[in-house]
Amino acid sequence: MRRLTFRLGLVLLGLAFAVALTTLVWTPWPVEDMSGGRLAGPSWAHWAGTDRLGRDSLSQVMIGARIALMVGLGATLVGGLIGTVAGVLAGFAQRGLDDALAAALDILIAFPTLLLAMLVVAASETASLGTAILAIGLAMSAIIARLVRVVSKRVLAQDYVTAARCCGAGWLRIVLTHVLPNIAPTLLVALALQFGLAVIAEASLSYLGLGAPPPNASWGQLLQQAQATVYTAPLGVLVPGGALVLLVLAINFVADGLRDLLDDSAEVRE
Amino acid sequence: MSHETLAPPAMRTLFGIGLLALTLSVAPSALLAETDPAAVLRIGSLYEPQNLDNTAGAGQGINEAFNDNVYEALFRLTDAGTVEPVLAASHEVSEDGLTHTFTLKDGVTFHSGDPLTAADVKYSIERVVAEASKSSRKRSLANIAGIETPDDKTVVVTLTSKSISLPYNLSYVWVVNDAAGDITAKEDGTGPYRLEDWARGTALSLTTFDGYWGEKPANGGAVFSYFSEAAALNNALLTDAVDIITSVQSPDALSMFADTSAFTIAEGKSTTKQLLAWNDRVAPFDNVKVRKALARAVDDKKLLEAIWGDRGTLIGSFVPPTDPWYVDLTGVDPYDPESAKALLAEAGLADGFTFTLDTPNYDPHPITAEFVKAELAKIGVTVNINIITPNEWYEKIYQKHDFQATLQEHVNHRDIVFYGNPDFYWGYNNPEVTKLIEEAEASDTEAQQTEKLTEANRIIAEDAASNWFFLYPQIVVSTVKVTGYPVNGLNAQFFLRGIQKAS
């Protein structure tokens, strides 16, 4: 069963990437083409119908996949980098400093990711793809940092690390040869799960108008615009909503599968 | 966010005006014959008042529930847009136009039983202009120099400058009993209804007042039920939990009420205008040719259809048809991309330019912004859309004037005055218009005022001061059982007294 979902996740994720890359060179209709008529139903010309301005919904949802993946990956990268560096530093820190860092991370985590991201967007002049990536990434970094801190502390307490220290190994060497390789599986699984959450966070931000500005057809923005016409043109909500669900599901399947493959402790837990 | 700041100017209303029908009735149904005079109307609304005092920041919901229902004023703004006397029996203006003498109607009592006196009227006007008052109408009454009450039935208002709008402006001044004290949670007015109960967060119920001086209402009272979500409100009407919805916000919800044997859809003219305001202070928007070019490049009709289906009205200026100085100006800068390009070239911008459009983050602004972006791209103008929250809009644009162009909806009736104020956020500064608007206020007759404001209206349209897209429709949906409700809902008022419900 696990294997099946892992494969399904990989296929869906691959499909999403393929669609996202395709939109760089081709979409069924140019997004600015408004010739489709108001809220037209599905047809051969417009598979998923059109929006209020007469634009092709399918083209917009395809571009939405690109935005979702870009922001999702970008945020995971930012969050992963900052989180790992902060987490490893906290792992090395002793007593007072360690307590302070742990408390700071706990406080950051107490803020909902979305709220933290909204604060970052509000602090910057204008909303853009960049601010969305930064905002979600920063909010994510606290979660990653806390995880990395705990796991690296566990690694640092191992006898072979003590042995390495006795042999005169510096902290950088210990991080590179012992800590990072040992925390990598756990980190990768956590990042995969966070990737899925980042995709949702991006949709939420742009639903609130705080994500990538139009005409970047983010799924959250498509949902927001289709909300006013949900009774007469439910497809406008179902298509981007369905795409969002599928992508996040795929990412979670992949994350689960990765955990089974990589994380030894997962077997112990189950 | 609906924008409501400065008070509109007004027209002079002397008593020569015949009493226009209070409400424009919706097509009467056959059921009308069986109306029940004791029926309690169940009204669904999205606008719950924050408190019960219109000078304490209660929001538009209090006007909807209380204006002319619970509180009356010296004058009333009818649903057709005219001003007529209510508690004033006569109104005389001195030769110099600076002294207005009002005589009050006899036999009027407050819900508490106290008789109406001139002191109550003085108290009521002072309440609105007081330091602590949060009334958006405060500014329009700022030219009141003093209020005298020579006897119980006479109120003399002296002004610092002539104001033909005084009766109109007084239509917002509730006459409150001067012994009432704090009215944020109770009321003491003279209207045909009194407050029965207010369950905060849910409902406000009104019942008829037996001691009312005028004609008895056609119903036995009303319950306003408040909803925070439009879909829930629509469902309430579908499931017969309410009789009327005071305003429908999307044309697509109307398909739920397509069954004409069960529901009536009334479309009136609102005063809500959607517009693209340029910052007329900054280049290139300080150039009339550029503004005209941009106005001609956007197909307003297509935009209106996208947002409101086949409803709503195109306007060529800022003035809605319910303002007395309305003229059809849609032909001034009609949709014509070719002449738009030519005008841009004349302005030295043949290669186009780029600007940022600050767009409020709620419907229909983002989709409008995308439409504008696509339209202007066709004449070589690039639009960067910047989505902002209502609070940011207020600070960045309304207060700091730090913008190039923005989208907004303006809800007020008679608000062309904004174009006479060079310090207003859009910074339109045409001394001729400012002068016309000032002169209109100092007019001796309504005809003179209308003439001046019609002229001002024409000039702002010729100048393409802003790009006015369309006027929202005002849509009221009810079960077929109820008739006689106001369809225009000017300034958010919802007159109850004429509404009939079949038994």
TrEMBL record, chain A:
<dbReference type="InterPro" id="IPR000515">
    <property type="entry name" value="MetI-like"/>
</dbReference>
<feature type="transmembrane region" description="Helical">
    <location>
        <begin position="186"/>
        <end position="210"/>
    </location>
</feature>
<keyword id="KW-1133">Transmembrane helix</keyword>
<feature type="transmembrane region" description="Helical">
    <location>
        <begin position="129"/>
        <end position="148"/>
    </location>
</feature>
<dbReference type="Pfam" id="PF00528">
    <property type="entry name" value="BPD_transp_1"/>
</dbReference>
<feature type="transmembrane region" description="Helical">
    <location>
        <begin position="67"/>
        <end position="93"/>
    </location>
</feature>
<dbReference type="InterPro" id="IPR035906">
    <property type="entry name" value="MetI-like_sf"/>
</dbReference>
<feature type="transmembrane region" description="Helical">
    <location>
        <begin position="100"/>
        <end position="123"/>
    </location>
</feature>
<comment type="similarity">
    <text>Belongs to the binding-protein-dependent transport system permease family.</text>
</comment>
<feature type="transmembrane region" description="Helical">
    <location>
        <begin position="231"/>
        <end position="255"/>
    </location>
</feature>
<feature type="domain" description="ABC transmembrane type-1">
    <location>
        <begin position="65"/>
        <end position="255"/>
    </location>
</feature>
<dbReference type="InterPro" id="IPR050366">
    <property type="entry name" value="BP-dependent_transpt_permease"/>
</dbReference>
<protein>
    <submittedName>
        <fullName>ABC transporter permease</fullName>
    </submittedName>
</protein>
<keyword id="KW-1003">Cell membrane</keyword>
<keyword id="KW-0813">Transport</keyword>
<keyword id="KW-0812">Transmembrane</keyword>
<keyword id="KW-0472">Membrane</keyword>
Automatic annotation (TrEMBL), chain B:
<protein>
    <submittedName>
        <fullName>ABC transporter substrate-binding protein</fullName>
    </submittedName>
</protein>
<dbReference type="Pfam" id="PF00496">
    <property type="entry name" value="SBP_bac_5"/>
</dbReference>
<comment type="similarity">
    <text>Belongs to the bacterial solute-binding protein 5 family.</text>
</comment>
<feature type="domain" description="Solute-binding protein family 5">
    <location>
        <begin position="82"/>
        <end position="409"/>
    </location>
</feature>
<dbReference type="InterPro" id="IPR039424">
    <property type="entry name" value="SBP_5"/>
</dbReference>
<keyword id="KW-0732">Signal</keyword>
<dbReference type="InterPro" id="IPR030678">
    <property type="entry name" value="Peptide/Ni-bd"/>
</dbReference>
<dbReference type="InterPro" id="IPR000914">
    <property type="entry name" value="SBP_5_dom"/>
</dbReference>
